[in-house]
Amino acid sequence: MLIRSLPFLLFALPAYAQSLTIVTDIPPLAAIASAVVGPDVEVRALLPQGGSPHDFAMRPSDARMLHGADVVFWSGEGMSPWMAQALESLDGETIIIEAFETNGWTPLPLRDLEAIGQVENNDEHEHEEDHADDHTHEEDDDHGHDHGDFDPHAWLSPLNAAAWAETLADVLTQNNLAGVEVSANAQTFAMEMGALETALKAEAEKLRGKGYLVSHDSFQYLETALDLPASGAIALSDASASGPAHIAVLKEQVVAQGISCILTDPQSNPDLATLVAEGTDAKIATVNPLGNAELTGAEYYRALLGGILVTLAECTGATN
User: Fold this and answer.
1) What is the per-residue pLDDT for 53?
2) 219 near 212, Cβ under 8 Å?
3) How many whole angstroms separate alpha carbon 80 and alpha carbon 26?
4) In a domain, 272, yes or no
5) Range list of β-strands (E), 249-314
6) Which residue from 301, 268, 306, 308 is spatially nearest to 27, judged by alpha carbons?
7) Residue 115: predicted pLDDT
8) Are residues 230 and 282 in the same domain?
9) Structure confidence by residue, pLDDT tens digits, 11-22
10) CA 164, CA 176: separation in Å to the nearest integer?
């Protein structure tokens, strides 16, 4: 667990609600933090609504916000590579919690294109060239998008969100930055996330057997939680592009399997989904896996995860 604590804040601060400031890299962690500390504590996310955490560039106002934080609660370099260097400029008096380095949550491994819906290519040579093309795009990217050994979109698991809430509450309590209510808030949020996952599983039943593709492999945690795997992915990440061989394979798969929906997101290249859907009956629908930054706590998660299911149901015709 990567946590840097405040050595001089070892006494209770009764006015923490008025003075504590928490800054996160992405909106999902801001929503979790807000659930823990309540509405009276300032919680702000650096990433704006609709932005991509991979290629975000900090502005002077973002740097000032970061330097003014008492607690920085961020995902990790695999999701926000720009954040690591920015944190090095802090003076050592800030608590830094890197969610990916904490305990209690369940990471899922990075997948290749074959592991997502078991996409197959009958032309082995073209298949190898297609992957070489993917690797080239990834290596040429400025940040490299090195996600490490696990999929970084871990906030899309309600139980991971619950685990991170409890970790944040523990750290705040240990550093006397909050009262006992944060532990109760975290426990309430954890129960809400458990109930949400149960409700989503029930909603997902109507989607059984409905094939869908994703623009890039960003929904694995939700797919796993709901046992609702995608049929395939156009690309592994929003920074990589697929070669023509893989696009051709997906078009054949859409027709052969009667896939009716391609689920894309604001961070991906929309032209790739259009290429796959062209000449088929598949529809394209867009959801933002980072959710609505204006919402907080359990409301944020209900809107985000429930919204993905609603969109998927409409796109696949499961609501008819």
Assistant:
1) 82
2) no
3) 8
4) yes
5) 261-264, 283-286
6) 301
7) 72
8) yes
9) 333 444 458 999
10) 18
How far, in Å, CA of 285 to CA of 304, rounded?
A: 15
Structure tokens at 146: 């090195």
Q: State how far the Cα of 59 lies from the Cα of 66, in Å rounded to an integer.
A: 11
Calculate Rg over the CA atoms of the chain: 21
Examine the pLDDT at 245 and tell me if it is beyond 50. Answer: yes
Instruction: Tell me the one-letter amino acid at 136.
Output: T
Q: 18-77, pLDDT tens digit by residue? A: 589 999 999 999 999 999 999 999 999 999 887 888 778 899 999 999 999 999 999 999
Greatest Cα pair distance in the chain: 67
- CB atoms inside a 10 Å sphere around CB 32: 32
The whole-number pLDDT of residue 259 equals 96
How far is residue 141 CA from its own chain's centroid?
Answer: 20
Asked if 80 and 42 sit in the same domain, the reply is: yes
Nearest one of 236, 248, 270 to 135, comparing CA atoms: 236
Whichever domain contains 98, its CATH number is 3.40.50.1980
- Kind and range of the H or E run holding 204: helix 181-204
Q: Please tell me the total count of domains within the chain.
A: 2
Q: Please give the Cα distance from 30 to 23 (Å, whole number).
A: 7
| Residue 177 and residue 268 in one domain | no
Lowest mean pLDDT among 123-137, 180-194, 236-250, 259-273: 123-137
| pLDDT class of 146 with cuts at 50, 70, 90 | very low
The structure tokens listed for 83 are: 């954040």
Half-sphere exposure of 244 (CA within 13 A, CB side): 0
